[in-house]
Design brief:
The chain contains nine helices and eight strands. It has about 280 residues and is of the alpha+beta class. The longest helix has 21 residues. The two termini are about 35 Å apart.
């Protein structure tokens, strides 16, 4: 059962929603390369950078946390960074991952504070683990946890590409090397301008009475970047600097590229990743 669970765990994050290989209609820029299959969950932003269509959700982070608790040891992390580009026997590799076991210290550090109270009359456990809030943005995470999630997602994507490719020809459908990370302030500002047609200023009213956060905007087959003001502010790659307008803001301007300082996990703070193409 563990092998089957691992297989589902590895692939489920990336096949829940298909990636969009077409440019959004509002984009008029030219990329520095010919498009291949988009990194999972992203659309092209600019240059060699793609960006998540939505903040990382409770369900996304639960998948990461479950994987860390099972097998994400230092040995496995090192192995994942030295994978062949194609031709991996996934059944054998899953058995190897199971044998690697967890990094217990890392698993402890990646836990969410389930007993912590939230600002909307709910504990983190009720919010984080309830299926009713699967697609709501994960909150109360540290910068270190968000960065670790990005690293894991890089590893899982590279494994997905290698495990899905039986030969070099098939592997050429995917980018050769990618890296997920938090966005820079400039990248966020650029996204707010490029995707301004997808900034839903009135969507926050659907947050409801139970939570201050907002469920991810429904996506169609072709993914689109979406930003909802007054949901959560989002971490940047600059530690202690967040981006955008959260539910606690009283700001009535349209300065969605604003920065805000934070110190430690907050229930008004989430994150989304960008994916940089390191090798085409």
């Amino acid at each position: 059962m563990e092998v089957s669970f691992l297989k589902i765990l590895i692939l489920s994050l990336f096949f829940m929603v298909p990636s969009d290989t077409n440019l959004p209609a509002i984009n008029k820029d030219e990329p520095p390369f010919k498009f291949k299959l988009s990194p999972p969950g992203t659309v092209w932003l600019r240059d060699s950078v793609f960006i998540d269509v939505a903040p990382v959700s409770n369900m996304d982070y639960r998948e990461f946390q479950a994987f860390v608790q099972i097998c994400y040891s230092k040995e496995l992390r090192d192995s994942l960074k030295n994978l062949p580009l194609f031709g991996i026997d996934m059944n054998s590799f899953q058995s190897y991952m199971r044998l690697c076991g967890p990094d217990k210290l890392m698993a402890q550090k990646m836990k969410v504070p389930l007993d912590a109270p939230l600002s909307w009359n709910m504990t983190m456990n009720e919010y984080y683990n309830s299926p009713n809030y699967n697609k709501f943005p994960v909150v109360l995470l540290s910068y270190i946890q968000a960065a670790a999630y990005c690293d894991w997602r890089t590893d899982m994507t590279m494994l997905l590409f290698a495990g899905s490719s039986k030969d070099e020809k098939y592997r050429s459908k995917f980018y050769k090397k990618v890296k997920y990370r938090l966005p820079t302030i400039d990248e966020w500002s650029y996204a707010m301008e490029k995707f301004k047609a997808n900034v839903f200023t009135n969507y926050w009213v659907y947050a409801g009475e139970k939570t201050a956060t907002i469920e991810a905007f429904p996506q169609k087959k072709n993914l689109q970047f979406v930003y909802v003001p007054h949901n959560v502010a989002e971490m940047s790659i600059v530690e202690k600097t967040a981006l955008g307008i959260s539910w606690r803001d009283t700001d009535t301007t349209d300065n969605y590229a604003k920065t805000v300082s934070y110190s430690g996990p907050r229930d008004w703070l989430g994150f989304r990743c960008v994916c940089e193409i390191l090798e085409y």
